[in-house]
Amino acid sequence: MATHKSAAKRARQNTVRNLRNRHVLSTMRTAIKKVRAAIEKKDLANLDTLLREAQSVIGKTRKKGTIHANNAARKISRLAIAVSKAKGYVRPAKTV
Could you tell me which residues come within 8 angstroms of residue 61 by beta carbon, excluding any fewer than 6 positions away? Predict the structure, then answer.
């Protein structure tokens, strides 16, 4: 238990921030799962909308500082690649 007044305040802030971060992370994971489920079901009609929503949620999660910027970029990139593959687009090979 916190002994000082400032430590007690810090504990309260940590509790609130933990709850907020958990909610934001859960929302992000759900958006990603919706995109992956649409890919599995070959639901190409809703795929673009779900991808756009997921990218938005991931960006907001990054902006709040819940995840690192590179983590967000990696998630967005991998989702976009998965959607492209589901649509039948094949990425050209990298040229050195």
Answer: 24, 25, 27, 28, 67, 72
